[in-house]
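Morning run. Coffee first, then this:
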Amino acid sequence: MSDFPEVDTSLDAEDVLAWIALERYALLTAERPSAAGPERNAG
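And here it is:
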């Protein structure tokens, strides 16, 4: 367990941006399902 003393501080800028992008995409798809893209319209 001592191999990962602080996991939060190991985040890179790219990881943070990726997480923010995922959350923003999730919010957009939750508010407007039509904004999800062809995945939603395929079914």
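The first helix runs from residue 13 to 31. Good start to the day.
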